[in-house]
Amino acid sequence: xxxxxxxxxxxxxxxxxxxxxxxxxxxxxxxxxxxxxxxxxxxxxxxxxxxxxxxxxxxxxxxxxxxxxxxxxxxxxxxxxxxxxxxxxxxxxxxxxxxxxxxxxxxxxxxxxxxxxxxxxxxxxxxxxxxxxxxxxxxxxxxxxxxxxxxxxxxxxxxxxxxxxxxxxxxxxxxxxxxxxxxxxxxxxxxxxxxxxxxxxxxxxxxxxxxxxxxxxxxxxxxxxxxxxxxxxx
Length: 234
Fold this sequence. Notes:
Number of strands: 10
Helix content: 25-40%
Number of helices: 6
CATH topology: Rossmann fold
CATH superfamily: P-loop containing nucleotide triphosphate hydrolases
Largest sheet: 6 strands, mixed
Mean pLDDT: 96
Strand order of the largest sheet: 6-7-8-3-9-10
Order of helices and strands: EEEHEEHEHHHEHEEE
Low-confidence stretches: none
Number of domains: 1
Radius of gyration: 17 Å
Strand content: 25-35%
Distance between the termini: 37 Å
CATH class: Alpha Beta
């Protein structure tokens, strides 16, 4: 069976003044459809660089990211834009909502440019915001704004959902609601999901846990079963 991602020898170096930074040092990974993977590791260990390259936001210095049999490094700029727009949903710690638009209108920004999307109302209902679709970001709590961001990411029916510290700015109660939404999308649509977090407790929700250190996957763990978001405490 062809994996969703076959990642080979992924390396990223860049210059900071006269210093060469090696953000990734030959990462190899196969990711199967529907997996939920948690990435742990200290700041600067390469997690975000890895996620950005997998999501087509950055390019590797060496190595390959093969998505459903196609090497991303062989794509033109237009093809890479198509990949990001149609196959990948992003959720960041910053919600990046347009303040002057309602929750529904923020999600509409994606549905209007995507073939065969979920409706904005359906996407918002899936994350528990069916009654808040006409509220502006300033009228929503932090957790609600993050769930709008998740709805925006899943409205295009992406094959892959990439989340970088999605609960980093949230309290425990609100963070659990956001994690429940992410896990529900993963299970309901079999959306391959990767979550970067500094919160090791979230690892219990994953199929696999990748521990990054010094630009490498230093250790990998497989959970015998996945915990529910409601069972996660920190």
